[in-house]
Design goal:
single chain; about 325 residues; five-stranded mixed beta sheet; 11 helices; about 30% helix
């Protein structure tokens, strides 16, 4: 079997910076309240009138990743696109990306696993490469949250958390089984699905029903999150996924050079860091300036960490995510 190795990384975030003070102008909140609960200072939101969309941002990140890999769009054999906020209800973002980048008629797969979307997407791509089916796969995570948030005081518990952005990785075939993705580990627990959910629209309640009702107070099409419940489960599942990955490869926590967790909440990442007794330079967080970008968060953080020289050859890099579904997972990488 082959191994899969990340050969190119890239990310893109909108220029428009929205600070906590900016949010306080249209909802009852403040900088201290937000930072205390989430660690977030600012986030990027697509500005009205911008040409950016989920697919466009994904394409901007992808171009960088492909160039960094020393490839062209023609070298990509397959696309895996993770998002909860596609440009259209259907078709998904993968085909939109294929068209924007002018790629050949390669396959495009969409992954809808929300906050753990990129971890799931990377796992899928890894298997396609390890079985020899594809040589170079473009894996993208992109989100446009700001267009679907309740920007009132009613929705502040969720809306202050999320940001827009995209990241991309090129996963390529290698015959060196000591490098690249060593293993991936995926889990779900659907009984808690309603603790973090956007209920409408869906086949149980279609768009026409919402139009007929014309109910401005309907919260079903805004994200709902039971914050305390999600937090308690996240810290447990993050820990389990990390340990599962390490044990599968006969590794110890002390072997970790860099942990890149999904940027859900800085307090969750700090809890995990304390639990595993990791130093500050062993965990990479950027939620402070980007917020939670869901499927884009892990890949934006990984790209930024690599760009800053925080990842070196032969480093052990661990990716971990937890989110709606509930779904969670980890990826163990030997760089």
């Amino acid at each position: 079997m082959y191994n899969s190795k990340i050969t190119g990384l890239g990310y893109y975030v909108p220029d428009n910076i929205v600070t906590n003070d900016d949010l306080s102008k249209f909802m009852d909140t403040n900088d201290a309240w937000i930072q205390e609960r989430t660690g977030i200072k600012e986030r990027r939101w697509i500005k009205a009138g911008s040409d950016d969309t989920t697919s466009v941002m994904g394409a901007k990140a992808a171009r960088i990743a492909i160039e960094k890999a020393g490839l062209t769009s023609d070298d990509i054999d397959f696309i895996v696109f993770a998002t909860l906020s596609p440009d259209n209800y259907f078709p998904g973002g993968g085909v939109e990306l294929q068209e924007i980048l002018g790629m050949k008629t390669i396959g495009a797969l969409d992954v809808r696993n929300q906050c753990s979307g990129f971890v799931y997407a990377l796992s899928v791509a890894d298997q396609f490469i390890k079985t020899g089916m594809y040589k170079n796969i473009l894996v993208v995570g992109s989100e446009w949250h700001s267009s679907g948030l309740d920007l009132s005081t009613r929705g502040r518990g969720v809306s202050v958390i999320f940001g827009d952005g995209a990241g991309a990785a090129v996963l390529s075939r290698t015959e060196d089984n000591t490098k690249g993705i060593l293993s991936t580990h995926l889990h779900s627990e659907g009984k808690h699905a309603k603790e973090l959910i956007v209920e409408s629209p869906g086949s149980k309640r279609w768009v026409t029903d919402l139009i007929k009702e014309d109910n401005k107070d309907d919260e079903s099409y805004y994200p709902h999150m039971n914050g305390t419940f999600v937090f308690k489960h996240a810290v447990v599942r993050f820990s389990e996924a990390i340990m599962e990955g390490l044990q599968a490869n006969n590794l110890q926590v002390s072997d970790i050079n860099l942990l890149v967790p999904h940027q859900a909440n800085l307090r969750i990442a700090q809890f995990i860091q304390r639990k595993f007794k990791l130093e500050d330079d062993q965990v990479y967080n950027n939620i402070q300036k980007y917020g939670n970008t869901t499927a884009a968060s892990v890949i934006i953080a990984l790209s930024e960490a690599f760009e800053k020289g925080k990842i070196k050859d032969n480093d052990l890099v661990v990716l971990a995510a937890f989110g709606s579904g509930f779904t969670w997972g980890s990826v163990i990488i030997r760089w």
